[in-house]
User: Fold these one by one.
Assistant:
Number 1:
Amino acid sequence: MIGFLTRRAGAAIAVLLVLTAAVFVLQQNSPGDPVKAYLGANASPAAVAAERASLHLDDPLASRYWHYLTQALRGDLGTSYRTHRPVTADLGAFLPATVELVVVAFLFALLLGAVFAMLRTIAGTFVRGILLVGATAPPFLLALGGIILFYAHLGWLPATGRGGNDDGFLLTHSLVTGDWAQLGAGLQHVVLPALVLAVAPAVSIGRILRASLQQTLGADHVRTARAKGLTEAAVFGRHVLRNSIGPGLSMAGLQLGFMFAGVVVVEQIFSWPGIGNYLAESIPAADYPAIAGVTVVLGAVYVVTNTVVDMIQALADPRIAL
Amino acid sequence: MKPLRVTAAVLTAVLLISACSGQTNDAKAANPAPTDGTLTVGLLGDIGQPPDPDIYYANNGLAIVLNTYEGLVQYEDNLDTVKIAPRLATSWEVSADKKVYTFHLRDGVKFHDGTAFTSEAVKVSLQRRTDVKGGAAYMTAGVQSVDTSDPSTAVVTLKEGNAAFLDYLASPFGPKMISPDGLARNKGSDDAQTYLTTHDIGSGPYSLSAVQTGTKYELTQFDGYWGTRSPFTKVELPVYNDSSALELAFDKGDVSAIVAALPSSDLKKYENSAAADSYLLPTLQSALVTLNPSGSFFKTAQARLAFLQSLDREKLIPQVLGNRSELATTLYAKGMIPDGADKQNITYNPEAMKTYAATLPAGSTMTIGYATGNPNAQQLATIVAAQMATLNIKATAQGYPTAQVFDWVNDPAKGPDAFFDGNNGPDGGNPYMWGHVFWDKSGGINYFACDDPSVDADLDKAVLTGDNALFVSAAEKYAASGCYLNFSYNKDWVVAQKWLTGVAESHNIGANELNFAKLGIKG
């Protein structure tokens, strides 16, 4: 286990180095003057030149990258050109919203994926139909359709925001402190964006799990278990699900990583104050410190997620060694 | 699998019908007024920069700055011409050489932290603008000294005469008065820049009470405000990143007003609506066309002028911009030069472009740029590109992110041949503020560095005295270069719920925002 974690930590460092280097090369080769975005449209060339110097933007690429890495090791990811705040402070403010959204969306995806795979009734067919329609629609269309239907027409769910003034873990905080009114408002706000984010991953997870279940259901050991007189629930729980869940878990881990990367569109349309929204607003402004900061976070999340999934898979299936 | 396909088809149909059906805005009744004293003004996109008056240099967050801070002067509200009006200064005198400005300050004004407003605040505020070195720091760069010997009079002496100085102060981006005590208490190592990302130290009718960057901003009415107070004790400014979501929230009554945020394509929907009021209010903004002399297509003034003459503005403006815009007949903003002496002599004549096109090699290409996210400019660029095709020119309309647009000045050859600016304007109402930013190479918005040193010299000379004849001369010289066309005068479009009053009265030609203190509830 220690060897596995060491290898993964090494891989994480390599991934983050490559990602940040890519952002720096991109910055070097991209047209655009972030200082204009920083100072404003009518800023004079003299003011722009002075600011470029103070932000070290005229230094050689290698020098800037080295400076970035050494500062990053001290927990300083630079200052956002757009918000004028340290990127770490921005990430600290925006990341909790994204984490909560993705966690809720992931739970929805697991639940809907399980329903997609396992429910063999009319209701299951109905859910599969909804999920397939949703998964084939582009996320922005699904989001807008959801807002029109559930906010504008039915008035069941709010369209934007998180439903509270807490910049941090709003749902977690209200749950821990017993602030049920805030928890209710928070849940009401998270449902629609989380569902939009969950639909496509749910179908991916559901399809893999369904195929795996069908394969296991026809296996010899399942026939033997049934012949021993075990109930269908016991056969399914003990002999089918545990043997089939590996591919589903693997897909779920992959989808969790994709969900973090895919929050941009959903957070934009639902005005969800997370890192996806932060990234979307940073790109047109060529706010490279912010873009690099989000890249580092997403890269780290992806590596950690895959590590955790590998560990869960090993726990679920003793045949898998780490 | 068959039942699944049938279910999917049925669900798709149901969702489509549900989404498309229902009441449209023009069919539904007006929404009721709020009963909790909260005004909700929807923002399209986050404000982008901290709401610090010496930093903020963008548009959609101006409402926050202008309702939490006040300047010495402002532009007259509800007027379609440029006229300086009192704010924290009740009157002023300007020396004949435009070097000494004496302001008589309003009595009884307090900042949100309780500090009294005196001439010391004027000195501190102008100094901070210079020290912070934001985009609009140029406005105080010429200040030599501020005499504060009389607390109720501030005497500002400039290093040299500047006829635009009052306009600098009246500009929505101009220096705002801040509490000297508030600044000293929260100065830190960055002149209180960190503190002012989430707080304010102004004297405006509202104070900044909550900041959720990217989600919502909240203002609370200042009990000690010296001027008019509205029935709105709280103003919420929620951020919508999508104009459709913002419209839905407005139609549902969750948003009270939208200022200059919706695309012109929605104009008719609200102009004809019985459930909402639509206001077209005067501004200094214009749609502009800028041509690139560094590319191969528009190397000569003759070619550039031929292209500008080929634009059928009388058709394009109603088609794309609607009632929100009118054909620009002057080189500066509407009304900036008295009696329209700065006449723009570009009239529609497609023959000149046809003649120029005939001289071009077969397969000549042209790129027409627009700022990404500006649907009006995109539509204009697309239509004009299609028109160029009829002259056998392969024209392409292409969007560019803002940061890239501002980088062209460093290497104009990297820019497109032409650029459509859907809406742009000066910081204030003085002709220098227009001519300098759009025509001077060092102005900031001369995208392709199309420069005529004699124009810059005329502008620099004219600003010393305010000589309008010299301003007109500079404009005419620049127009002859063919690098620039004032395409249309644009208006500010405000959509408000029926119950909201005072919209036009709370708006001025310089600030594309509303003074929330002047708004009210009908009945």
Number 2:
Amino acid sequence: MSSDNKDLKWVGKSPVRPDGNDKVTGRAKFGADLMLPGMLVGKVLRSPHAHAIIKSIDTSKAEALPGVKAVITSADVTDLSSEWVPAGEVQINFRDLARNVMANEKVLYNGHAVAAVAATNNAIANAALELISIDYEVLPHVIDVEDAMAEDAPILHEDMFTQGVTPKPDKPSNVFKHVDIAVGDVEAGFAQADLIVEKSFKTAPVHQGYIEPHAAVASFGEDGKAELWCSTQGQFVVRLYCAKLLGMDVSNLRVTPSEIGGGFGGKTTVYLEPVALLLSRKAGRPVRAVMTREEVFRASGPTSGAVTWVKIGVKNDGTIVAGEAILKYQAGAFAGSPIQPGCMCAFAPYDIENVKVKGYDVVVNRPKVAAYRAPGAPISEHAVESVLDDIAKQISIDPLELREKNAATEGTNAAYGPKFGPIGFVETLAAAKAHPHYSAPLGPNQGRGVACGFWFNIGGDSCAAVNVAEDGSIVVSTGSPDIGGSRASMAIMAAETLGIDVADVHPNVADTSSLGYTFLTGGSRVTFATGMAVIEAAKQVVETLRERAAKIWDISVDAVIWEDGYAKPAGTNAGDFEPLSLGEIASTAGKTGGPISGNAALNAQGAGPAFGTHICDVEVDPETGRVTVLRYTAVQDCGKAIHKGYVEGQIQGGAVQGIGWALNEEYIYDDKGRLDNAGFLDYRIPVASDLPMIDTVVVEVANPNHPYGVRGVGEVPIVPPMATVANAIESATGIRMTELPMSPPKVLAAIDGAK
Amino acid sequence: MARIILTSGLSNQFTSGQTELEIDAVDVRGLILLLDESFPGIGDELKREMAVAIDGQIYQEPFLEKISTNSEVYFLPRIGGGKNILT
């Protein structure tokens, strides 16, 4: 099914971005940009230890310091009972959330918040932090996932008993949960195989690396109502979490999302927001809290590091007969890694009769993980795509052909259960195969790798309002923070539906008191789900415009059509009337029934899964181990690209983040469990000068459940890069790298070891 | 009767390893009630943790979705989304 529709005027184009001017001129207001009269500075005191009991906290000296207006500790945070709720594509437990915002009884990682102050300026706030005295009893710590699973590992939570095992364990463990996925009979499958390849891998936890640190400005009124301005992917989720932590009625808190300087999943939870609110409530003045970059690294969620093992059996013709995996994911200090989607995605791109995946969710003395683009999927799919590459070599089959032979298509039962509807995986493989990149010559020490990726995509709750101004211009309000171009997409879909110029549509992100509940920006859901709400609201406006034109012409509404932004008589029998523009109808709206607007609230179902296929050329310096990415092409099925430029940007951004994960990014801890590289100088993310332009190919196999065929875009592109780069390095050197990042020291050691 | 498929985790916990069942139900709400009658405790788990795929279409917050006689219904872990319920 193709989403080609030649009649579309705006969908698929790349009009000027509505947020562009503000961003390039510096006028955009980010989380730290709001100033309020009497505003205080909020600062957080963080644990120097990886694991310790808090024996006592003495804040008296800090409270006595002139200029200090409030000091808080865990005693000020409601200690909630255990309750799991969705946070992006991962789950979060309210009890853990409270204890992550402010440590209670124990600190569980270096950087864990233990107290906070509000003072009249930075210097006083910093001095106050130094005056807080904490008596710690330092405990043994554990950083790596397999160490944490060992029998004699230091236990983080004495009340954690592994779920998913029978009988229930009688002693606590750092393994929170076992996850099992099984389809068919994996042993029987392996018995049919002509070749079985198995390998173990290790991936590093990596930070989302958003440029804008977490920031929040809170203002608590004496009437118990509060306002919060913050950088977030979901103002409604922030409202709920903060209301819960502060014991407030949800509607007493108004949360306004600022412009956001990146999130990638990392801003789907709260850190500073409840702290700023608590300080403001206690001080009776507005409080602004902003994380330093160091705090971002020490205290906000990366994604999991993991140890993985994959075994795949194939026939000599390349048919995969069985796949098995064991996945061990770090959750950070509290349970809830993306192990579940990791298990479900591992073999999802392929049509395999026999699959078995076992997953472990394991707590360690690191910051609690947060969602990061396609949470869990890049880790498991990295292992599978690496093993497939080795299989292709061993049975002398082109790696794309191997994947084509086994690719999931419409009607295939996904490895996690249900049947796929229309999907475009084979189309991405065909486009990659046909791309000039795939047949371009390579030089000495150069290699080419390919790999594929899958992500589910989600829908969910969204609201939208489409309001017609007096001059006929349009304001589209949604509750979805714009982290990837959604304002542009909303404007395009509204303009397309209304038949007007996209420049006349002004998209807007509304606060929590101005629009109904909208789930956060994540799961590649916004253009799909919130887009459906915008389209529905715009259709309501069209209906109203037809009714108003009918009134003006004094004919039946059935005799009025809406075409290219004009009301027109449906035919000669309807009467001879000059078409009425949207502006003309709007200017007389008061006479025909009042303001014109459309409002939609829905729970969007039918998100379309998406697949990508990437090609990468690298050159490996045999003397230093440095890997240079020479050329990179990312092919992805997007269903339908609404704003082409933004879609390409999403694909490029995801690929670059994946390349950073592959080559450079890692957390380095000392022997006391303290993070040694909490800054961008030592935690190396790729910058523009490190990489070539990422070439993109947008494949469009329409999602039949969306009016314009949209699938999600933002998450798939981070899935293939790690294996794509690893496979390219293998092609250049003949060495299979099994540990990320594939940094120069590791690659050099592998080259030297192979001599 | 609709074909109901449970994850291996659910089946180990509630159905003595049985992953496939045949049940007559008109919607997801009814199906969960019937399952809970046969396998006490599974209902809460399904409501709290699981999404449903009916004939390939995934519903993250299933409740009133219709099930037909020949439907294939997979219970699978929720990926994301959903309104958070205050307790």
